[in-house]
Amino acid sequence: MRAAVLHEIGQDKLEVLDDVEAVGFGPGKVKLRVRATGLCHSDISAMSGVLPQPAPFIPGHEGAGEVIDVGDGVTGLGVGDRVLVCWLPACGACPSCKRGQTHLCLAGFMNAGTPNFKRPGGDVFGFAGTGTFTEEVVVGAGCAVPIPDDVPFEIAALIGCGVTTGLGAAINTAQVEAGSSVAVIGCGGVGISTIQGARVQGAAQIVAVDPVASRREAALRFGATEAVSPDEFGDAKQRITAGEGFDYVFEVVGKSATARTAYEQTRRGGTLCIVGAGAMDDNFQVNMFELFFDEKRILPSMYGGGDVLRSYERAIALWRAGRIDLESMITHRVRLDGINDALDQMRTGESLRTCIEL
C-alpha cells in the first residue's frame, strides 16, 4: 500500500512509499479506502513539531472514502458506505460528552499514541490517530461518519476539518451577531471558512488580514468586504470602527504575536476568538488590568466549538443551499506523488486547500 511518511520530526519532505500496511483492524474498527484528503496546516505543524505527534508518522486527517471492511460490534456502517474521517470522535461517556461538549472529548487523542500502520522497518503512527495520506487506513468506527451520495469525496474531506473548524468558530463559538464588524487574521482554508461563517451570520463588515496578496484576493471572493495586509490592519480599524475596534476578531494563525494583535484590534467588550493551533511553548500574555478593564471575551475554539456531527450536517445543508462555497476553496489538486509540491504551496500561501486524490 502506498503512503506518504515523515520519518523524523523536523523534516520538511515526505517520502512516498509502497511498503506500508494498515494495521489494528478488529472489533469496533473499520478499514477505509481513502479517496480524497485535504492538506491542512496542522499537518505541517505536526511535521515541524509545533503540534505533538510521535514519529515516524503518516500525516493527514481531513479525508473521505469508502468502507472496505467492518469489525465485530460495529453498527450503522457497512462495506461500500461513503464516509468522511472525523479525527476527534466523541466517546459519548466521558464527562465532556455528558456535558454536551463532545468536541472536548479526549478519546480520539488516545489513539494518537497507538501505531495504526507498519512497514518492514517497524511501526508507523497516523497523525491524530488517523493518517489519511495513504490508500487505506484503519480507524475506530466513530471516526467514520456516513455522508450523503450527493457530497463529493473532496468536499466531504474539507468538511472533516477545515470547514467545520472555521464555520464553527463564527457560528458556535463566537456566535457572530448580524450587523456586526468582524476581522479575520489568517486567510488559509480555515480562515476562509471563518469568513464564510461570519457572512452566513450576517456580519456587516468582514475584514480579511493576510500578508499574501492572492489570499487577500480570495477572501474577497468568499465574503470579505475588505482585505488588507497586516501593515494596513490598524488603518482599517481606524477607518471602519472609528478606532474603537472590531466586534469580533478571529486569530487563525496560531501564534502569540498575532493573537496579541487580535486582542488589541478587538473593541472593549468585544470578542477575540482563537482558532489557530499553536505551540505549547508560545505564550499569549495580557496584563491583569487590561483583562479586567477592557472586558474583552477571549474564546478559544476547538474544532469549531460544537457537536461535530451536527456541524457536519449544517455545513452540508449550507453548501447545498449555495450559502457557502466549498468547491472554490480547492485551489490545487495532486496525486500522492505530488505531496511535497503541495506542502511547499501551502507554506508559501499559494494554495487555500489542496485536494490529494488517491
How would you describe what is shown here?
- The protein has helices at 41-48, 95-98, 107-110, 153-159, 162-173, 189-201, 213-221, 233-241, 256-265, 288-294, 308-320, 339-348; strands at 3-5, 15-17, 21-22, 29-38, 57-58, 62-70, 82-85, 117-119, 122-126, 136-140, 144-146, 181-185, 205-209, 226-228, 246-251, 266-274, 297-300, 330-335, 353-357.
- The protein is of the alpha/beta class and 358 residues long.
- The strands form 4 sheets. Strands 4, 6, 7, 10, 11, 18 and 19 form a 7-stranded mixed sheet that branches.
- The chain is globular, with a radius of gyration of 20 Å.
Q: Let me know the average pLDDT.
A: 96
- Count all strands and give the number: 19
Low-confidence stretches: none
Helix content: 25-40%
Helix and strand content put the structural class at alpha/beta
* Largest sheet report: 7 strands, mixed
Share of residues in strands: 25-35%
Assembly annotation: single chain
Number of helices: 12
Cα gyration radius (Å) = 20 Å
Euclidean distance between termini CA atoms = 11 Å
Gross morphology: globular
What labels would you give this structure?
alpha/beta, 26% strand, 19 strands, 358 residues
